[in-house]
Amino acid sequence: MLRPPDLPDAVRFALPERKEGFWRISFESPTPEGVTYLGRNHPFVAGLARFLLEEALRIGAGEGGMANREGRRIVSRCGVIATRAVNRSTWVLLLRVRYLIEQPERPPLLAEEVLAAAFEAQDGRLTPLPDDAALRLLHEAQPDANISLPEKRALAAAALDRWPEMEAALESHMQGRAGALTESYKRVRRAAKMSARQVKMNVQLPADLLGLLVLHPVVTA
Questions:
Q1: 78, 166, 203, 205: least surrounded by Cβ within 10 Å?
Q2: What's the pLDDT tens digit per position in 23-49?
Q3: What angle do CA 136, 140, 144 make, to 5 degrees?
Q4: How confident is the model at residue 18, as a pLDDT?
Q5: 179 phi, psi to nearest 5 deg
Q6: CA-to-CA distance for 25 and 137, rounded, in angstroms?
Q7: Comparing C-alpha atoms, which of 105, 120, 97 is closest to residue 181?
Q8: How much is the pLDDT for 20?
Q9: Helices in 30-119 by DSSP H: which ranges?
C-alpha cells in the first residue's frame, strides 16, 4: 500500500481520491476487488517515471533535486558497482546525440537518439567496446560485492575526469553513425516515392552525457 503523504507533490497528483487515506495496489492481474492494477501504462506509473527522470537530470542538489533526510540525492545519473560481468574497469555511458537532417526543398529537421557506449580502462589506456557489448553490460551487469562509499566516489570521479578523452574518441563513431542513419533515411524516402538526393544527417557535437555506470571487477583471492 502507498501512503500519499509520503510521496512528492508531482507524484501525489496522479493518485486517486481515497476517503480512507490508502490506495491498495497490485502488480499482478487479475486483482481482487477494491485493488488497482498498476501496469506500465497506468497514469501513476507514467507520472512516477517522468518525475524520477526529471530529478535525475537535475545538475546539482542545490537545484532542488530529490533528497532524503540526510540531504543525499535519491535519484542519480551515476552509479558504481562491483560485478563479475567484467574483468577490468569498464565505463558504460548513456549518451544523447542530436542530428540535423538536411533535405531538399524543406527546412532542416532536428532529430535525436539515445546511445549506449562503453570503454575498458587498463594501464592508463581506454579501449572502446562494440555497441552491442555496451548494451549487454548495461542490461545484464549486476552487483556481486560491496563497495564503500568513498571508493565509489573515487571510481566515479576517475571516470568523469576522463570524459573529455572518451568524448573525443566517440566523435568518429558518431560521425559514422550519422552516415548510416543517412542511408537508412534515404531508403525510407525512396520507399515513400520521395526524393532522396541531397539528404544528409549531420551529427551535432558534443553529445550530452546523460548517465555513467562504472563497472568494477570483483577481486577474488
A1: 205
A2: 788 888 888 888 888 888 888 888 888
A3: 135
A4: 65
A5: -65, -40
A6: 33
A7: 97
A8: 67
A9: 43-56
Cis peptide before 5 (omega within 30 of 0): no
Type of residue found at 200: K
The β-bridge partners of 79 are 213
The residue ranges of every structural domain in the chain are 4-63, 78-217
Q: State the cell numbers at 202.
A: 549531420
Q: Give the list of residues 6+ apart from residue 31 with CB closer than 8 angstroms, or none.
A: 37
For residues 195-199, give the mean pLDDT: 80
Identify whether 30 is preceded by a cis peptide bond (ω within 30 of 0). Answer: yes
Give the residue from 114, 99, 95 showing the smallest Cα distance to 167. 95
- Do the Cβ atoms of 38 and 2 come closer than 8 Å? no
Q: Which three cell numbers stand for residue 7?
A: 510521496
Higher confidence at residue 71 or residue 22?
22
